[in-house]
From TrEMBL:
It comes from Adineta steineri. Belongs to the cornifelin family. It holds the Pfam family PLAC8. InterPro entries: PLAC_motif_containing. This is Uncharacterized protein.
Amino acid sequence: MTEHNEWNGSLFACFDDCDTCLYGYYGGPCLFGQNAEKIDGSNCCFMCVLYGTLNYLWLCWIPHYWKRSILRQKYGLPQDPNCPDCPATAFCSPCAICQEARFLKQQEQNNTNAVYTTVSGAMPITNQPRTAH
């Protein structure tokens, strides 16, 4: 069953996380590769090189569109009616990569907090004394 979520920022909220914004703008292919790895386990380096190579042919939006669709489906994210996936990845790719990275970062933080809460509430294991038979 797919959970339903909302994006944790609009497509153009890049400056909500300046580190991700700068990385997405100057190292877009690398950030795309990292996102792809988190989305479905794709090889980070391969996706980085693929995106970077296709960027020179103005075709980088194709793998980006594909991965963004998988991300939305996996987490039950809505498609923006004002800027659907195809135009977002074709014309606003750095912003879309950053939006995806911010969402994935938030998911990782949520998962880390959930694990920490579960572990911190666990009962300690104590050794039982052995009995003689």
